[in-house]
Design goal:
Helix content is 45%, strand content 12%. With 963 residues, it is α+β, with helices and mostly antiparallel strands.
């Protein structure tokens, strides 16, 4: 007999917190009595407690100890378990690497490879360090799979992280950033004085990253390669929201507490209480908040769930199961490590990141489209000082530009005055927590508003390009080397020590630095102290220039493509967001701003993705290119919701093989019924993909069932060999049997387009209000990101969605409204007092003016409404609908009996607001005494009279005879 205890938490006092954690993991509520529960006894008992539990069986305790003493696990640290790269027969790995490097040196530098001794010196030095530290195989492994990717045409990034500082990586083609040109330092990548494994992370085209991973599996063995597990942690904000949810709190109430936690990286709950007096008061005065916080503090930092690292791959020299435990991912497909990144490094296993970078896919798709009109175009030959590309940054037209799309980055780029690639590299390095404090100083110095100062003349060579401000880690290393005689490796160690802020170590380093300054450059102690203080300040802020340079090049490439091949570039962007209608809406807005027309989907013209097209009457949008360009983009069929990429690929193949589709019925007849199903056809019709037939969308929608039935019958006949001589007339007969169909209202038509495509194609709900909006000079929703928190603003837009809610404390109604203008959407909270005044106005489709207060406490921009009022369209003569004489436009009359209910009136109201227009609505109420009351419904309920509206209102509609 063996004594054991089922342990689920450490202490008995953790039982309640564990219960909450259980609810978080299973998606249950604490008050749910039917859910899974654990007993309070399932904690980690002490030896004394275990002896008490098993006092009748003392031998059981001894047996447990015997078994425990027999168990043993030895983890070997510090020994490399990297696989050995298989080199050609008769060659050593060191010799093969040298051979590849000197071939690459000649390819990269041409004649300079023999005439510039610095190149050979640097290459020899780096190779010597790699051989000494034992990382030759590592470099060959990385070279091999990147070489494979490039041979297969899989886009690879120009570099990532500190590897761009290595000339070996450059000549091997691992990176494409010339390290000497940008002053990049090898020791930042691999420090010979403090050997730690080099870390080469590689960006691949997102769509084809899997091909590289599969190549590595086949090369080194499937049992030796695995993806890496990752654990989602319960951090300060998320644990508060999770605990609040399972305790039954409303999202708003839990969110209120979460927003009191400052937006700081890795902040703890205790630290948040110390920094926010409002949170401290809430804990002292609100018992429920105190309870939530008590549970949250116990759970803070624990793993919430396990997943697969987006990029991490581990490779070993033998079966991974010899070194680490393995498991399957959540879906049960791939084998993954049970150890995360850190422990794998500690055990000496080869860990690397295969990152999927969507921008590389966008660039590749753009180049494919450009190649159709300019086959010889290559990014390798473009100038790196293109004024048109730089102008995009300076105008803030950064949508689609890599690393530049956030509102803050756009604002910074506008004030930065970008004139060269180095400016873009600096932009990327500066816009991060910490370095952001240097931005005002940097911009003023760059624009000559403040003089550039150097504490020592020798610093000018190091900081001239950054106007006296150290923004790169490499500058700190170079300064230590030049001023104090440090080797670059020692400079890297100094940089690391400064970053960790170890007081005892820093005092020692300060003495070494001062002595080095005196010995090397005769710098006085006082001046050397001041320089050390400066380096220490910037070391905490400094960013890896190697990484910034590589990403700066990608950003410049996107800017060049957008400036010179805007249609192809925007088509590439849109094509890579086919499953994200919100992103599509943003990019479509940018296309319209650029003067690029977005053409609706067409089953006979659209490709699977978005494709450039030329339409008559519009100028070439490809500014700066001499070749005939495109001026429009055709919506891709795979981007329409509910249609499916595989089905659309089959439809396109059918079209290419047998010609264009003649009609909806022809489309159904030519495709298998399992492909052309009802849901897909409904979406295609609603999105306008069959508008080429010149038939009304509502009519086409009504024909879907008959078309499918006819198609199914036709396919059955074909399978049985019965082909009618009159097949070609079947479709016309089907259409003839249909009764006249009432057209959809403009509101319905636009709503379908917005739902399925992400934007409006045939119009916009605000089109009729364009003159009014321009006259009133409303702010755009997009521009609100430039305002400070709590600033008041005034905008106008159409209501997209209204979600009615109730406050938890006293059950008062309020609403969360989503409002859109021509380019963007804003979420607005309408609290109880205002909600009671304007609830009748808060209807989807209604166009309103809104005054509000901005809320920037969280990442997502929100607002609180102060005032809301409906807007009416402007007439051609400049007057608004409010001032229009109702007698000039025919009114419709609705009649209600004396028994009419509130629900019935609300139903009528919703029908009216779904079809806004010019026609007044009059209401006639019959009373029990025989008299009637008749009055106008008001300007906000004027409608567009359509057959569809008349059908919906037929129960109440009175047809008045006019003289």
């Amino acid at each position: 007999m063996v004594a054991a205890n089922d342990v689920h938490f450490l202490r008995r006092s953790d039982h309640q917190a564990h219960d909450v954690m259980l609810c978080i993991g299973t998606g249950k509520m604490v008050q749910d009595e039917t859910r899974l529960h654990y007993l309070p006894e399932l904690y980690f008992k002490s030896p004394a407690e275990m002896r008490q539990v098993f006092h009748d069986f003392p031998g059981a305790i001894k047996n447990t100890l015997v078994i425990g003493e027999r168990c043993g696990l030895d983890l070997e640290f510090g020994r490399s378990k990297y696989p050995e790269y298989p080199v050609p027969a008769g060659k050593t790995r060191e010799g093969y690497l040298r051979e590849l490097c000197f071939q690459g040196l000649s390819t990269r530098y041409g004649e300079r490879a023999t005439s510039d001794p610095e190149l050979k010196r640097r290459l020899e030095y780096e190779l010597g360090v790699l051989e000494k530290t034992g990382f030759v195989s590592y470099l060959l492994i990385v070279w091999d799979f990147i070489h494979f990717a490039k041979e297969k045409g899989i886009p690879v990034g120009p570099g990532r992280g500190s590897a761009a500082g290595s000339i070996v990586a450059y000549v091997l083609g691992i990176t494409d950033i010339e390290p000497l040109q940008y002053g990049l330092i090898f020791e930042r990548f691999l420090n010979p004085d403090r050997v730690s494994p080099p870390d080469i992370d590689v960006d691949f085209c997102e769509a084809r990253r899997g091909e590289v991973l599969e190549y590595v599996r086949q090369k080194y063995g499937e049992r030796r390669v695995a993806q890496i597990i990752t654990f989602g942690k319960l951090k300060a904000k998320s644990v508060v929201r999770d605990v609040g949810r399972v305790l039954g709190w409303s999202y708003r109430d839990a969110d209120r507490i979460a927003k009191m936690i400052p937006n700081e990286l890795n902040i703890t709950l205790d630290a948040a209480v110390g920094k926010n007096a409002e949170l401290k008061r809430a804990l002292a005065s609100e018992p429920a908040t105190r309870q939530l916080f008590d549970h949250a503090k116990v759970l803070e930092g624990l793993s919430r769930n396990a997943g697969v690292h987006a990029a991490g791959v581990v490779i070993a020299d033998r079966d991974l199961s010899d070194y680490i435990p393995l498991c399957r991912d959540v879906k049960g497909n791939d084998v993954i490590s049970q150890y995360a990144m850190g422990p794998l490094n500690d055990l000496g296993l080869l860990k690397m990141d295969f990152l999927g970078l969507k921008t590389l896919t966008v660039i590749e798709d753009t180049l494919t489209l450009i190649g159709k009109r300019q086959p010889d175009f290559s990014l390798k030959t473009i100038p790196l000082d293109d004024a048109a590309a730089f102008a995009l940054y300076n105008r803030g037209e950064t949508i689609g530009l890599f690393q530049m799309e956030s509102g803050g980055m756009t604002s910074l780029s506008k004030q930065f005055d970008v004139k060269k690639l180095d400016d873009i590299i600096a932009l990327i390095a500066l816009y991060r927590p910490g370095p952001m404090e240097l931005i005002p100083e940097y911009v003023k110095a760059k624009k000559g508003l403040t003089p550039i100062k150097y504490l020592h003349p020798l610093l000018e060579d190091i900081c001239a390009d950054t106007y006296g401000v150290m923004i790169y880690q490499e500058q700190v290393m170079a300064a230590a080397s030049k001023l104090a005689g440090y080797s670059l490796a020692q400079g890297d160690l100094l940089r690391r020590a400064m970053g960790k802020k170890d007081k005892e170590k820093m005092a020692k380093e300060r003495r070494n630095f001062i002595d080095g300054c005196a010995r090397t450059n005769k710098i006085p102690e006082k001046k050397a102290n001041a320089i050390f203080d400066l380096l220490e300040k910037f070391a905490g802020y400094g960013f890896n220039k190697s990484h910034s340079a590589a990403y700066g090049v990608i950003s410049y490439h996107t800017a060049y493509l957008k400036a010179h091949y805007p249609v192809e570039f925007m088509a590439g962007l849109l094509s890579n967001e086919i499953n994200n209608t919100e992103k599509i809406s943003v990019f479509v807005g940018e296309c319209k701003r650029m003067g690029i027309s977005i053409l609706p989907p067409d089953i006979n013209k659209s490709g699977l993705k978005f494709t450039p097209e030329t339409i008559a009457g519009i100028g070439d949008a490809g500014a700066g290119i001499n070749h005939p360009g495109y001026n429009a983009i055709r919506y891709g069929l795979a981007a329409i919701k509910n249609v499916g990429e595989a089905a659309m690929a089959m439809a396109i193949r059918e079209r290419e093989q047998r010609g264009e589709f003649a009609s909806l019925e022809d489309f159904c007849g030519r495709l298998d019924s399992r492909v052309a199903n009802r849901k897909m056809l409904e979406s295609l019709v609603r999105a306008g993909a069959f508008d080429f037939t010149r038939r009304d969308r509502a009519e086409l929608f009504a024909l879907i069932d008959d078309a499918l039935a006819s198609s199914a019958a036709l396919q059955r006949d074909r399978l049985s060999g019965q082909v009618s001589l009159f097949d070609q007339h079947t479709h016309a007969a089907t259409a003839a049997r249909r009764q006249p169909i009432k057209s959809w209202s403009e509101h319905e038509k636009l709503s379908y387009e917005k739902e399925l495509l992400g934007f409006y194609v045939s119009g916009h709900p605000l089109d009729a209000y364009a003159d009014l909006l321009a006259a009133q000079n409303y702010r755009s929703i997009a521009s609100l990101g430039e305002l400070e928190d709590r600033v008041q603003f005034k905008i106008a837009g159409a209501i997209v969605e209204v979600e009615k809610k109730f406050t938890k404390k006293d059950g008062k109604p309020f609403a969360v409204v989503r409002l859109e203008d021509l380019l963007d959407i804003l979420e607005v909270v309408v609290w109880n007092e205002l909600y009671l005044k304007v609830s009748d106005v808060l209807v989807p489709g209604r166009v309103v003016e809104l005054k509000g207060t901005l809320d920037r406490r969280d990442e997502m921009l929100r607002a609180t409404a102060i005032e809301i009022k409906p807007l009416a369209p402007v007439k051609p003569n400049g007057a608004t609908e409010r001032s229009e004489d109702a007698s000039q436009v025919s009114a419709i009359l609705l009649r209600f009996s004396s028994g009419t209910t509130g629900d019935e009136l609300r139903q009528v109201r919703n029908i009216l607001v779904s079809s806004p227009g010019r026609h007044p609505v009059q209401l006639l109420f019959d009373r029990d005494n025989g008299n009637s009351l008749r009055f106008d419904a008001g300007v906000e309920f004027r409608v567009d009279v359509t057959p569809d509206l008349e059908q919906k209102l037929s129960r109440w509609l009175v047809i008045e005879e006019r003289p």
